[in-house]
# Entry
Amino acid sequence: MDKTKRTRLETAGWRVGDAPDFLELTAEEAAFVELKLALADYLRDIRVQHGWTQTYVARVLGSSQSRVAKMEAADASVSVDLLVKSLLTLGVSRKQVGQVIARAA
# Structure
């Protein structure tokens, strides 16, 4: 948001912040959300790079297409553990997973 718009909103009585402020997340909770989003985005990126469909990825993982869609959307029902295991199953190295995690920090 540009500075002028922010100033205008604050002058009008609005409080301006980010998602962690709005959701009242601790720094640790916000970092965890960012980590989960980064892993989910990377899963989608890997799938798209290889030209795989969600159905194909689901078959490889022994899951369903709808579950893969939830994984890519970082749905609340999806654990970080599941995202990491899925990436490793798809051939992503531990080093690459580590790099995704490091970039999320």
